[in-house]
C-alpha cells in the first residue's frame, strides 16, 4: 500500500501486511495505517549514527528464503547501540534481525510461557526453558529505545526504557525476553556470521569497497585535532566507537561528541608500548574479510612480584565487526567473541564447539596503556579477571569484570602470517621467545606418525616372531643322564653320536642338575664326527637355599642352558666334562635342534622403541615448557 | 607427498628393515651363548675325552 505522509507529503510505502506503523524518512513523522488511509501519530526522535552496515532495503537470505529489511528500532545500551531490524520474508511472514558490532541474530516472537518468571526473578546464570530448549540467562539490562524508522508492527515510542533479558545456549541459539510491557514478550532465534546471510544492497561505507552495497556512502572517517595537544586524530569507525585515545598526549576523547570532548587526561609519563601493527593497517586474517587496526591496548599482570605484559590489537570492519589480536613474547593469537556459552563453564575443563579445553591460567589483568579508538569507555587502570583455557592451537578465554562475563574464542597465528597479512616490514619481524600458550606443538604431528609406525613395526616383529615360533622344529635329538663323583678320576664323557637335520639351525644344550648349596661347572665340546670340526662351550650352574629370620630363601638355578648357532647338519657328539666341589652331582644333558630364540626380537623391539621414546620425550618437553608459565606446571619450580 | 606421509613412510621402512633383520637371524639359526670354534680336532684328541679336556678345556 502506498500513501503520502500527512505531514510532509513524502511517499510512504507499506510493504508488509502486518506493518501498522511507519516512520516517514523525511520528517520523522510516525503514521498509523487505517484500511486505505494513514493517520499521523506523532514524531519520532532522530536516530543516532551507529555505523551499521544494514539499511532499509537491504536484502539477505535466511535458510534458503530471501528477506528484505523494512523497518528498524534503535536501542541504546551502556556498551553501545543495538538495532532490531524488522524483516519481511519473500514467502510471507516477518521476523527480527538483531544487529550490533558484526553480530547478526535472526529471531521470531514465540508465545511466552507463564512459568518464565518476572524480571526480578531471572538472575544471570539461571536456567530457563523456552519451548523444547533450555537457555541460561546471559545478561540483564535496561536498554533505552531511541526511535525507529521504516515500517513497524507496533507503535515506537522514543525514549522509553526496555528491561531486557538475554539468554544463550551452548550453540548459536539464543532468546530475548522483553519486559517493557505488562506481559513478557519472548523472541527466539539463532546467531549468524555475516557471510551466512548473503546480504545485498548493504549500506555503502567510504573506504570499504568490495561489498554488495546500494546508494551513496554516507559514513566517512572523521579527522580532527586532539583538544588537548592538537595532534591529528581520526575516528576510523564513526558511530561504532565510544572513545578515541590520543597517542601523543594520552588524552581520552569522546568519539560520539561533536567536539570530541576530553574524557580523561592521563599522566604524560605513562610509558608508551611498542606497537608492531600501526593503527590504520588493514589485513585479512579472519577469512576473506579485511579488517582494520583501530585500537591498541597493553595489559599487565603481576605474579609473585614479576610484571608480565602483553599487547592487544582491536580490529574492525563495518561489516563483520570486531576481532582481537593479542601478542605476548612474539606469540600471536586471533580472538573473537564466542557465540553462545561454553558447556561446563563452572569446571576447569569447559567445552566449546565440541572440543574440551583445559584451564591454563587465571590472572587479574590491568590496562596500562591504550591507543586509538574503542567501542567502550576504556580507561587505564581498568581491571578484569581472565581465565584462559586451551586446546592448542585453540583458546577459550573468559573475561570477568564488575559488569559482565565475556567468553572469547581464538587460535594461534604464526608471526609470519601476521606480518604478511598486514604487509609489515619483514626485517622488523619479532621472533617469538619460549612456547606460546596455544602454539601448536611442532613435534606432535611427527610423534603421531612415529607412534603409528611404532605400532606397525611392533606388529610386524610380533608377526615375524609368531611365524618362526610355529615354524621352529624344537626337535630333541639327544638326552642322557650322568653322575659326577668327585672321588672318581674319570669325569669326562663322550656321548653317543646324534644326527642333526640339514640346514643351518641353532642347537640348545640343556643341563639339569641336583646341586644344592653348591655349584657345578661343565666345559663341553660339540664335535662333528665326519669333519672333526668342534665347538667348545661351557655352562655353570649354582644353587643355594636356606632359611633365616625372614623365612626361606633361594638363589641361583640348578639348570643351565647353552644356545649354539648356526650349526650345520650331520653327525655330531658331545664331550662333557664336569667339575664341582660337591662330592657327587647327578645331571642330565639334552640337545634340542632348531629352538625359538628371543634375543634378536628384543634387540629389534628396543631399536624401534628408541626413536619412539626420543620423540615422546621431546614432545613432552615442549608441553612442559608450555605449561611452565601456567597455573598448572608439570614440575613446580623452587 | 607431504612431510607427514614422508615421515610415516620413513618409519615404516625402518620397521620393515628391523623385521627383515629378525627374519634373517631366525633363518640363519641364531645362537646366543659364547662359544669357540675349532676348525679341525685331530682324531687322537677326538677319541680320547680326557686328552681333549686337557688340551682344550684347560689349555694344557
Short description:
The complex is a heterodimer of chains A (638) and B (60). Chain A is mostly beta strands.
Apparent shape of chain A = elongated
Query: Per the principal axes of the C-alpha atoms, what is the gross shape of chain B?
Result: rod-shaped
Q: Please give the radius of gyration of chain B in angstroms.
A: 24 Å
- List the helices and strands of chain B in order: HEHH
Structural class of chain B: mainly alpha
Helical stretch count of chain B?
Answer: 3
Unreliably modeled segments of chain A: none
- What class do helices, strands and sheet pairing of chain A give? mainly beta
For the largest beta-sheet of chain A, the strand count, sense and barrel status come to: 8 strands, antiparallel, barrel
Compute the gyration radius of chain A: what is it?
41 Å
Distance between the termini of chain B: 67 Å
Number of strands of chain B: 1
Describe the structure.
- The complex is a heterodimer of chains A (638) and B (60).
- Chain A has 638 residues and is mainly beta.
- In chain A, the strands form seven sheets. Chain A has an eight-stranded antiparallel beta barrel with strand order 7-8-9-10-15-14-13-12.
- Chain A is elongated.
- The mean pLDDT of chain A is 87.
- In chain B, 63% of the residues lie in helices and 5% in strands.
- Chain B is rod-shaped and about 65 Å long.
- The N and C termini of chain B lie far apart (67 Å).
- Chains A and B meet through helix 2, strand 33, strand 35, strand 36 and strand 37 of A and helix 1, strand 1 and helix 3 of B.
- Strand 37 (534-548) of chain A pairs antiparallel with strand 1 of chain B.
Amino acid at each position: 500500500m502506498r500513501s503520502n505522509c500527512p505531514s510532509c507529503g513524502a511517499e510512504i510505502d507499506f510493504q508488509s501486511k502486518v506493518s501498522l506503523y511507519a516512520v516517514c524518512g523525511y520528517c520523522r513523522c510516525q503514521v498509523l495505517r487505517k484500511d486505505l488511509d494513514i493517520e499521523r501519530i506523532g514524531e519520532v526522535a532522530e536516530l543516532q549514527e551507529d555505523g551499521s552496515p544494514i539499511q532499509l532495503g537491504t536484502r539477505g537470505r535466511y535458510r534458503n528464503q530471501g528477506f528484505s529489511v523494512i523497518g528498524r528500532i534503535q536501542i541504546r545500551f551502556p556498551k553501545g547501540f543495538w538495532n532490531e531490524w524488522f524483516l519481511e520474508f519473500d514467502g510471507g511472514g516477518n521476523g527480527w534481525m538483531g544487529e550490533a558490532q558484526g553480530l547478526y541474530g535472526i529471531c521470531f516472537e514465540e508465545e511466552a510461557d507463564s512459568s518464565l518468571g518476572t524480571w526480578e526473578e531471572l538472575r544471570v546464570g539461571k536456567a530457563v526453558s523456552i519451548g523444547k530448549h533450555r537457555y541460561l540467562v546471559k545478561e540483564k539490562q535496561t536498554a533505552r529505545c531511541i526511535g525507529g524508522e521504516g515500517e513497524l508492527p507496533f507503535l515506537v515510542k522514543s525514549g522509553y526504557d526496555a528491561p531486557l533479558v538475554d539468554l544463550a545456549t551452548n550453540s548459536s541459539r539464543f532468546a530475548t525476553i522483553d519486559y517493557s510491557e505488562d506481559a513478557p514478550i519472548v523472541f527466539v532465534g539463532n546467531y549468524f556470521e555475516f557471510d551466512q546471510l548473503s546480504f545485498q544492497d548493504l549500506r555503502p561505507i567510504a573506504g570499504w569497497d568490495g561489498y554488495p552495497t546500494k546508494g551513496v556512502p554516507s559514513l566517512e572517517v572523521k579527522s580532527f585535532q586532539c583538544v588537548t595537544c592538537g595532534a591529528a586524530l581520526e575516528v576510523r569507525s564513526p558511530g561504532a566507537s565510544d572513545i578515541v585515545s590520543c597517542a601523543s598526549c594520552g588524552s581520552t576523547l569522546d568519539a560520539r561528541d561533536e567536539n570530541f570532548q576530553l574524557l580523561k587526561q592521563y599522566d604524560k609519563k605513562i610509558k608508551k608500548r611498542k606497537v608492531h601493527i600501526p593503527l590504520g593497517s588493514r589485513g585479512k586474517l579472519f577469512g576473506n574479510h579485511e579488517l582494520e587496526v583501530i585500537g591498541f591496548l597493553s595489559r599487565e599482570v603481576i605474579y609473585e612480584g614479576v610484571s608480565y605484559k602483553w599487547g592487544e590489537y582491536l580490529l574492525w570492519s563495518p561489516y563483520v565487526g570486531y576481532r582481537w589480536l593479542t601478542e605476548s613474547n612474539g606469540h600471536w593469537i586471533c580472538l573473537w567473541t564466542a557465540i553462545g556459552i561454553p558447556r561446563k563453564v563452572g569446571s576447569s575443563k569447559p567445552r566449546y564447539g565440541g572440543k574440551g579445553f583445559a584451564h591454563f591460567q587465571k590472572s587479574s589483568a590491568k590496562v596500562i596503556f591504550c591507543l586509538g579508538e574503542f567501542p567502550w569507555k576504556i580507561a587505564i587502570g581498568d581491571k578484569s579477571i581472565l581465565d584462559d583455557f586451551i586446546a592448542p592451537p585453540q583458546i577459550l578465554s573468559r573475561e570477568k569484570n564488575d559488569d559482565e562475563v565475556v567468553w572469547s574464542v581464538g587460535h594461534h597465528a604464526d608471526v609470519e602470517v601476521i606480518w604478511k597479512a598486514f604487509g609489515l616490514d619483514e626485517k622488523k619481524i619479532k621472533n617469538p621467545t619460549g612456547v606460546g600458550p596455544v602454539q601448536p606443538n611442532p613435534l606432535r604431528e611427527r610423534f603421531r606418525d612415529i607412534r603409528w609406525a611404532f605400532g606397525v613395526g611392533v606388529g610386524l616383529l610380533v608377526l615375524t616372531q609368531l611365524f618362526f615360533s610355529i615354524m621352529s622344529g624344537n626337535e630333541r635329538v639327544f638326552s642322557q643322564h650322568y653322575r659326577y663323583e668327585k672321588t672318581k678320576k674319570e669325569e669326562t664323557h663322550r656321548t653317543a653320536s646324534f644326527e642333526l637335520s640339514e640346514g643351518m639351525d641353532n642347537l640348545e644344550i640343556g643341563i639339569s642338575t641336583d646341586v644344592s648349596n653348591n655349584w657345578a661347572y661343565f666345559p663341553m665340546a660339540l664335535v662333528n664326527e665326519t669333519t672333526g670340526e668342534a665347538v667348545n662351550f661351557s655352562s655353570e650352574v649354582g644353587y643355594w637355599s636356606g632359611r633365616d629370620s625372614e623365612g626361606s630363601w633361594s638363589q641361583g638355578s640348578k639348570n643351565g642352558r647353552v644356545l649354539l648357532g648356526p650349526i650345520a647338519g650331520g653327525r655330531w657328539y658331545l664331550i662333557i666334562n664336569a667339575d664341582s666341589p660337591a662330592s657327587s652331582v647327578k645331571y642330565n644333558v639334552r640337545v634340542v635342534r632348531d629352538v625359538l630364540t628371543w634375543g634378536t626380537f628384543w634387540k629389534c623391539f628396543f631399536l624401534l622403541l628408541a626413536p619412539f621414546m626420543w620423540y615422546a620425550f621431546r614432545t613432552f618437553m615442549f608441553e612442559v615448557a608450555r605449561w611452565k608459565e601456567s597455573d598448572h606446571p608439570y614440575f613446580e619450580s623452587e | 607427498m607431504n612431510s607427514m606421509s614422508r615421515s610415516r613412510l620413513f618409519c615404516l621402512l625402518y620397521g620393515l628393515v628391523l623385521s627383515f633383520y629378525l627374519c634373517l637371524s631366525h633363518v640363519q639359526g641364531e645362537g646366543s651363548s659364547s662359544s669357540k670354534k675349532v676348525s679341525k680336532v685331530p682324531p687322537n684328541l677326538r677319541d680320547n675325552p680326557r686328552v681333549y679336556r686337557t688340551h682344550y678345556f684347560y689349555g694344557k
